[in-house]
Amino acid sequence: ALSAGVPVVTTDVGDCRSLAISDDLVVPPREPHQLANAMRTLLIRTQADRSQLANEAKALFAQKFTIEATASSYLKTYHEMLST
Description:
Helices cover 55% and strands 5% of the residues. The chain has helices at 32-43, 47-64, 67-82, and strands spanning 10-11, 26-27. It has a two-stranded parallel ribbon. It is flat. The N and C termini lie far apart (36 Å).
């Protein structure tokens, strides 16, 4: 979704928070009404706001989730595991 410029609405479980471009797109687990409200908030934004959010989503993807970034993160984790 992020690579396509689609902001992610997620629950605050595990590492899912790292997928959100802002805290207002993260809701507590098991709160379907809050999840629906967060999604609705995205849908009613103006075209200019949606364009800005799309740019932020793509930027977050480029920063954290490219193949290079993912491989680097795994490599760092492996090094940490081996050094303990």
